[in-house]
Design a protein that fits this description.
It is a single chain. The chain has helices at residues 11-20, 23-31, 39-45, 51-63, 85-88, 91-104; strands at 37-38, 67-73, 77-83. It has 105 residues and is α+β, with helices and mostly antiparallel strands. A hairpin with a 3-residue loop joins strand 2 and strand 3. The chain has 6 helices and 3 strands.
């Protein structure tokens, strides 16, 4: 049975599981938990992710309003990524996953 047709969970929960079930998505959210970062800083923090995948996931997170892309001009134009309030709402879920991992895995 695929997750798309599970009669035991609501459509909303199903959609949330599909979004948050992506390990790269969770890694990006966790990486942005403490501070806003530039693309290259996120890339260095998650060395296993390739740039195309990172770019695609950031766009998806922007579309879902979990991450915001902010242009700033200090010495030159640069872009930083930061969690929105909606994105910060996912952090307790990551904390619970961490607790589970430490306890059971």
């Amino acid at each position: 049975m695929s997750i798309d047709h599970n009669p035991h969970i609501s459509e909303e929960l199903n959609n949330g599981i599909k979004m948050l079930g992506d390990a790269w998505i969770l890694c990006i959210i966790g990486t942005l938990a403490k501070d806003e970062l530039r693309f290259n800083e996120i890339q260095r923090a998650i060395p296993a992710i390739n740039p195309a995948t990172l770019s695609a996931r950031l766009k998806k997170l922007e579309k879902e309003k979990i991450v915001e892309r902010k242009e700033e001009t200090v010495n030159k134009l640069s872009v930083v990524y930061a969690l929105t309030d909606k994105g910060r709402g996912i952090l307790p879920i990551l904390k619970e996953i961490q607790i589970f991992v430490e306890k059971f895995l």
